[in-house]
Amino acid sequence: xxxxxxxxxxxxxxxxxxxxxxxxxxxxxxxxxxxxxxxxxxxxxxxxxxxxxxxxxxxxxxxxxxxxxxxxxxxxxxxxxxxxxxxxxxxxxxxxxxxxxxxxxxxxxxxxxxxxxxxxxxxxxxxxxxxxxxxxxxxxxxxxxxxxxxxxxxxxxxxxxxxxxxxxxxxxxxxxxxxxxxxxxxxxxxxxxxxxxxxxxxxxxxxxxxxxxxxxxxxxxxxxxxxxxxxxxxxxxxxxxxxxxxxxxxxxxxxxxxxxxxxxxxxxxxxxxxxxxxxxxxxxxxxxxxxxxxxxxxxxxxxxxxxxxxxxxxxxxxxxxxxxxxxxxxxxxxxxxxxxxxxxxxxxxxxxxxxxxxxxxxxxxxxxxxxxxxxxxxxxxxxxxxxxxxxxxxxxx
Length: 397
Ligand SMILES: Cc1ncc(COP(=O)(O)O)c(C=O)c1O
Fold this sequence. Notes:
- This protein is α/β, with parallel strands linked by helices.
- 37% of the residues lie in helices and 14% in strands.
- The model has no long low-confidence stretch (mean pLDDT 94).
- The chain binds pyridoxal-5'-phosphate.
- The site of pyridoxal-5'-phosphate has 14 residues, from helix 5.
């Protein structure tokens, strides 16, 4: 007997596309190199593991409602490095990873029928929660600058705003494009948000992974933004903690109160990990720097190799550890490219079309393997591209 008749209609719709929490096991696995998912290959350092154990041994194993006060204070102190003064007690909410931060932020603001604007291309993890709340995802185009980085198309953004628009969500540094928003772009977005009285959701989970001379800027302290901004953060990439589920929201006191009122139960980030989170924020920065340096070496290596392949163009990302090369000159749709590359060469990457229409003509590589594996990926990619059937010449109208 099917359960659909018992199930909330939005969930029934999501069941049709959901993998039920399992990863696809289709295709070759031996010799496979997985650059499809953004799960860092670095392990959590021993001193953080020990901090988790020490917290349990010290009896920190009890209920914590919206998060441990000393963890929230440590987060507030950390975020000051972006020039913003926040009060840990009233402006930080602990979540179980960035994904729960997304869900809880949406739960607080989205009514059925509301429109939420995300940029195109954008991270896919926003799609299902928007659908779950019966809201509508609307895409605002990004266009490439002369260096090949996707940037907002302001005219298109203004054009897709309607009287149903509740919020605009953006991500800096961005997954998948690697773009880091400038302060001027943030000011422009803030101006639009204030003019149309719209909430801004600012996904900043890659804040610590920025390359070259760029620097992370936040939108929350621009005049008019405190009351309408929800910042989403996570330890997943910063401290390579994807399995430990540590995330948080930063917002103005009233918005924090609203998001805290979402009945998700008791704070689901385990207390010993919250205590270890304090240690990570105090002592974990050498580890973060080690990862950062290694990621940048990987990026530089692979950007050079990709650009040496005929038909592929790859800008060096400004932040985050993904490459989003343009493969449009190869004339193969990104989904077919990703599937065939996997079946023929056992390398997983993500098709750009999954991130939105503007992502077509691109694939995403998550640089979560050491250079020796990336070198092997590039060798396989060269062979794969060489063996692509010749393209039909463009038709003359
Ligand atoms: C842009 C972005 N936001 C949010 C998340 C979710 O973070 P978490 O892994 O902490 O749930 C991810 C994960 O890859 C992401 O790339």
